[in-house]
Amino acid sequence: MRKLFAVFKREYLQAVRKKMFIIMTFLMPVLMVGLFFIPSLMMERGMGVKKISVLDGTGELAGAFTGAQVEKDGDISVGENKRDLPGQIETSYVDVKGKSVDEAAKPYFTRMSSDDKSERIDGVFLIPSDALTSPAAKLKYYSRSATDFVTQARLSSRVNRSVQRFRLAGRGIPGQDVDQLLKDLDIESVQLSRSGEQKKGGVANFIVGFMLTGLLLVPSFVYGLEIMRGIIQEKTDRVVEVLVSSMSPSQLLVGKILGVAAVGLTQVGVWLILAGIAGGFGAATAALAGENFLQFLRPSTFIFFVVFFLLAYLTYVCVYAIGGAVCNSEKEAQQMIMPATMVMMLPWFLMAGIITNPDSTLSVAFSMMPVFGPLTMYVRTLVAEPPMWHIAVSILVSLATISAFFWITAKIFRIGILSYGKRPTIPELWKWMKVA
């Protein structure tokens, strides 16, 4: 035990004393916040304005594009309310009533590929002449991008709302009543716990679930890679031969894994403290606005985080330890563990479905399976209230998986750390496990 603790102490102190560890511990939260907010800010300010020409065959829907330039019989006027359309879309409305909409659109198609930036437009939106009378009428949107579905949806929404107004007005409903009849109702998402407690849900739960799950997952893989690199470096420098002459390979393996796990917990602990401080200020501010963000700061959230972080880390790290033990270079090890890593990340690829439907058959099955359990079950505890027996089964299965992985890893590690040359094949690894 003393030798194991010596390895643990060396791995821990060697990592936390590095300047880069200290810098990244405090810089990473800033980078993570930037990763969430800077792209959206850049998209908002840097995507530019889309210029769309709207050709209306009915001649009646200019009001749908209030704030746009309205062109009719050569005259151009500007609408009064410029907030009706999103800032990223600048529309010019053209009344083509009594004309063929497709024929009238041809000059605008030419402008879409014009070399003159002042003349160039990004899209053409066509409203057929029978849009107000025929349920089978179809709107058309032409753009220079095959994926410009956001602009298409916004324009379609504006036109359809105006068409509904005209149809209702045509059936004798006063214009002042139409807006009241078509007004959308706000919806509030509420999570009802098993005890009957009501908590607000919705987008906030989704974002918090993704952030905390990423905080659980990323360090497990990062420090797993650190263990793999450390083992390969010691093999390359022949240091490992000296180490195993004074202790068993199992003691060396366990000491390394626990030491790096403590490093990960230290770093994540600092992040959680910083997040708690920031969350406290945010919660106080939100409380003044009538929002309760303390529902995301429940003690169980942090207790489960530590439990499932350790389970996930110990599950994943064995794979990296095997990669370091049987390979002679980092490149070889990465090639070897890449397929296993992709399989282990399967819950992350399915995260959106797990967060939005945490009690589905898929979510429940994944939360109680080996390897996938820690990550999936933690997400379920964040956004729902799974039965305690689900959590207990998940923990027990994960502990059994870790025990099996440690047993396999220790056997392979015992022979692999002193093996050099060609990387072993799967049958050779099986032989190592039987011989060790």
Comma- or semicolon-separated keywords:
436 residues, alpha/beta, D-Maltodextrin-Binding Protein, domain 2, 2 domains, six-stranded mixed beta sheet, two-stranded antiparallel sheet, elongated
Describe the structure.
- By secondary structure, the chain is α/β, with parallel strands linked by helices.
- It folds into 2 domains: 2-33 and 203-435, no CATH class; 49-177, 3-Layer(aba) Sandwich (D-Maltodextrin-Binding Protein, domain 2), CATH 3.40.190.
- The chain has 16 helices and 8 strands.
- The strands form 2 sheets. Strands 3-2-4-1-5-6 form a 6-stranded mixed beta sheet, with helices on both faces. The protein has a two-stranded antiparallel ribbon with strand order 7-8.
- Strand 7 and strand 8 (198-200) form a beta hairpin.
- Helix 6 packs parallel to helix 9, helix 6 runs antiparallel to helix 14 (373-383) and helix 9 runs parallel beside helix 15.
- The model is unreliable at 68-87 (pLDDT under 50).
